[in-house]
Amino acid sequence: MERTIGIGLLGAGTVGGTLVRRLVGESEAIASKTGLTFDVRKVGVRDLSRPREFDVTEGMLTTEPTEVVDDPSVDIVVEVMGGLEPAGDLILAALEAGKPVITANKELIAARGPELIAAAERKGVPLLFEAAVGGGIPIIRPLSETLAGEHLERILGIVNGTTNYILSQMTEAGVTYEEALAEAKALGYAEPDPTADVSGADAASKAAILASLAFGTWVGPSDVYTEGIEAVDAMDIAFGADFGYVVKLIGTAERIGSGVNVRVHPAMVPVEHPLAGIRGATNAVFIEGPSIDSLLFSGPGAGGEPTATAVLGDVIDAARETLAGAQVAPRIRFSAADVVPFEQVPTRWYVRLLVDDKPGVLAKIAGAFGEAGVSIRSVWQEGVDSEAALIIVTHHAAEASQRRAVEAFESIPDVIEVASVIRVLGDRV
Amino acid sequence: MERTIGIGLLGAGTVGGTLVRRLVGESEAIASKTGLTFDVRKVGVRDLSRPREFDVTEGMLTTEPTEVVDDPSVDIVVEVMGGLEPAGDLILAALEAGKPVITANKELIAARGPELIAAAERKGVPLLFEAAVGGGIPIIRPLSETLAGEHLERILGIVNGTTNYILSQMTEAGVTYEEALAEAKALGYAEPDPTADVSGADAASKAAILASLAFGTWVGPSDVYTEGIEAVDAMDIAFGADFGYVVKLIGTAERIGSGVNVRVHPAMVPVEHPLAGIRGATNAVFIEGPSIDSLLFSGPGAGGEPTATAVLGDVIDAARETLAGAQVAPRIRFSAADVVPFEQVPTRWYVRLLVDDKPGVLAKIAGAFGEAGVSIRSVWQEGVDSEAALIIVTHHAAEASQRRAVEAFESIPDVIEVASVIRVLGDRV
Questions:
Q1: Which of B1, B148, B332 shows the shortest C-beta gap to A313?
Q2: Among A20, A144, B3, B266, which residue has the fewest nearby CB atoms (within 10 Å)?
Q3: Cβ-Cβ contacts under 8 Å, A306 against chain B
């Protein structure tokens, strides 16, 4: 048990640098608690001329990524370089060489999970990715191990800190989307190009992974209906508050009959729901099942330190399994996904319309909802000169029916504009 | 991989019955997700004449507990009978026979953890107890695996649903302790003899286990300062609310210098703290560390179904490890505990005094605090006839100093009574 385990790192950014500092600086504490000693043998980087986030004078060799994978002194490969390539092929090569792999790469796992997991299973080595979703929040292991025996029904996640920070600022400081985004960039919560975050793409990868682990059926990112926060208007956040809702970007993975649906979109979350209180860059995952009722996990969803903690937990786990000399058995077997199109999923809508303030308008709008089979839960109207803002919250109906109703508004002459549409988080159906 | 795994059950109460129903009724779903097939071979009960919580017509044999352990067709032993004996010796016998053991028994793990864990390590078999703390909330595995590389600083837990239900009812419905307890009994949230819950003993076992796993240093239940909720007065809950606090029974595991302190007592929790919002019988664990900042886990802390989910997750994990044919490596190595006496721990106090309403009383009380080295944060006084309620909230000072100050009040003639003392949850120090 006491031999030193060689770590090969792919990527030398914030997470990689933090991990190296922890493996070196906390080696005694880790050894005393786990009985394991680690040594970072090689650090592979794409561009050898770029400066590193950490000091490599400790005897670590910065090198080409392929050399890390091939080095016989590297027992475990840790991939924190991100992106689909070369990360994907490097991980595959490491697994094929019989080396356990730890990765924080949600984009890659969402895109090539089945292939990589199959390679790991074939070789009987662990492929762990606790850091891929929820950063420092332990969520992958609880889902795939502790809750393996639960027939989970729905998972709701605030899994992107950038967008939650922006929406929180819009809610609490009353600023516009553009102001909140600028602030997020200034504070380092948003990238210079924030597209992956604000478009919902990052959250979609994470929601796909959560769905796959929870339901044991692999869902790819292309199966995820994705809508970002770019169109969220401060006015709707304010109206939402009046109605008892907080606007959040929610990733939802839900069983619908014998299939599953996964989606990411802004949602009006009832203030009394535990996710409504998740503020700033914090992430949270809310899990619903028949036996556990509901579980909430929350914590820091990103950042070098929390992510490094998750990676380190996986490294320790992989080392433990590897040293046990076992052919590691798969944690979850995935069956083919039966993805239910979003159009068939029951949703509830908040719709804000700009209408001519004259009699009969509401009757026409209510008529359009009725014809589409959507029943109205509440209506609120506020006149502004000759125009009026009309806000309607519907009961559950198929997403397609909600869309049909709203499309029908375009042929109502008194409707000036469908200003916004935000889904309302309901109980699981 | 495809062979059937024989389960031997010790105990046939609520959790045992639920587990059998799930293993039988959901066997297909479990097999499809995990690739594992389970068969409950024998059910050991202490009193064969008592009726079972479940139907044993499925070919299961209800028998003496020792026969379960000895049966060669039993691959994994699941102990859900509770109590120290015979559970402890049965588990030890199973481990010695090289069988993985799953238990939900927090009392036993807290009392005999090191001995049982050592036996499991010697035999290279898993001893798993996810259900022992937090019922259906995955907390043991995240602490001992995912967070193994984090230098955790403090854990705060609401780990007893009965007492949280009682305190929540006192807070929300304004009832007395006795009324809330009677209601909890009527609803099945409290046992006919609620001593283990209301005295804090149950929470102390769980806090000891959390501390041991978090800090890698074994803390026994006798090391835990324990104070229950029997003396919590509705008046202090009301005053607490005025000051922005919610009264909760909090289990605390904290690093103090190079040692640890573990304690369970009622605490005034600031309303903005995530634990303040944990209502009813829900449990929650709040984990603090330098890298993860803070994590919150919440969910159902007790009940047959959530507990069975946690047990089932452990059974699946143990089966996976066992089938891998490995000598299972220990998850955590425990070092000797350096338990810091509570007297030396910095605490903050809320003190309610009944005093004669005349000039100079406050000066004498403030003087007593000052002499003990405790500084006062806020004071509030309300006159009732010739008497006054005086409420003082202090800053951090050693628990011993707080006690010394309050003891000194007894020699102040104007102090009629020290009506109550409740510690105030502060930031980690």
A1: B148
A2: B3
A3: 291-293
pTM: 0.93
Beta strands of A335-375 (E only): which ranges? 346-356
Burial class (CB in 10 A: 0-12, 13-18, 19+), B389: middle
* Same domain as B157, residue B109: no
The ipTM value here is 0.91
Q: Is A306's CB within 8 Å of B315's CB?
A: no
Residue A131 sits in the same domain as residue A183: no
For residue B157, CA distances in Å to A295, B224, B406 come to 15, 14, 27
Rounded distance between C-alpha atoms, residue B14 and residue B304, angstroms: 5
Give the total number of structural domains in chain B.
3
Cβ within 8 Å, pair B138-A295: yes
* E-state strands within B323-409: 346-356, 376-384, 387-394, 397-398
> Both B257 and B234 in a single domain?
yes
Which of B23, B76, B150 should we substitute to test contact with A (largest number of A Cβ atoms within 10 Å)? Answer: B150
* Parallel, antiparallel or unpaired: strands B387-394 and B376-384: antiparallel
Q: Which residues pair with A424 in a beta bridge?
A: A268, A348
The answer as to whether A329 is a domain residue is no
Of the candidates A34, A310, A324, which has its C-beta nearest B146's C-beta?
A310
DSSP A200: S
Q: Which residue range(s) make up the domain with A386?
A: 344-424
Chain A, chain B: beta-carbon pairs less than 8 Å apart? 199
Inter-residue contact B112 to B222 (CB < 8 Å) = no
| CB-CB under 8 Å, B298 with A295 | yes
Confidence at B113, pLDDT banded by 50, 70, 90: very high
Cβ of A317 within 8 Å of Cβ of B136? The answer is: no
Q: Nearest CA to B76 among B266, B323, B260, B252?
A: B323
Question: Is B185 an active-site residue?
Answer: no
Pick from B32, B321, B333: which is nearest to A216 by CB? Answer: B32
CATH number of the domain where residue B283 is located: 3.30.360.10
Nearest to B174 by CA among B235, B231, B229: B235
User: In whole angstroms, what is the distance from residue B423 CA to residue B394 CA?
Assistant: 9
State the smallest CA–CA distance between residue A409 and chain B in angstroms.
42
| Tokens coding A261 | 């649906």
Q: A62 and A91: one domain?
A: yes
Q: Residue A328: inside a domain, yes or no?
A: no
Mean pLDDT throughout A267-272?
Answer: 97
Q: Do B300 and A292 touch (CB under 8 A)?
A: yes
- As annotated, the active-site residues of A are 206
> What is the distance between the alpha carbons of residues A115 and B359, in angstroms, rounded to a whole number?
80
Q: Are residues A183 and A285 in the same domain?
A: yes
pLDDT digits (tens, 9 = 90+) for B293-324: 999 999 998 889 999 999 999 999 999 887 76
Q: Which one is catalytic: B99, B206, B358, B364? A: B206
Distance from CA of B367 to the nearest CA of A (A): 42
**Residue A137: its pLDDT value, please?**
94
pLDDT digits (tens, 9 = 90+) for A327-338: 666 677 788 889
